[in-house]
Amino acid sequence: MRADAAAGIASGVLGAVLIIVIWINLVFPAPIVSGGGTVLTGPDVALKEHEWGFNQFAKGGPQICANTNSTNITITLANTGINLHGFQIVRADTGAFVAGLAKTDLLRPGEPPRKIVIDVSKIAPGSYDYICPVSGHRQKGMVAPFVVQSSC
Known about the structure:
Elements: H1 3-27, E1 35-40, E2 44-48, E3 62-67, E4 72-78, E5 88-91, E6 97-100, E7 114-119, E8 126-131, E9 143-149
Parallel strand pairs: 1-3, 2-4, 3-9
Antiparallel strand pairs: 4-7, 5-6, 5-8, 8-9
């Protein structure tokens, strides 16, 4: 067999392996690791788009802990990406809306940071998630824990 033919076959086999690996990652994505290991506390929290979980290398944003002894928590969102994004706090068990932006109130890429004031006194203590409500974004990793408790 000629060397150029062997090189062509080897390149074809390598290309097929790469296509199969990419296909497997698309069809069977890695589970979302929620929380990212960081806990944000205090009356003012700031998140950039990739920090709240939408990144091909890191899924799930940092946990936000809202103290029941505080009336409000202000969350400042900056959309530094290329897609529209939203921010909602939902029940972890049912996905029911608790607080945040309406599904249609989305942050455009590059718009000035937006502050959202969440009235913690209207949320029962417990575990919730904060998500991006744009179709498919939660499934891609824009989901992380939002905890309401007395010891943050």
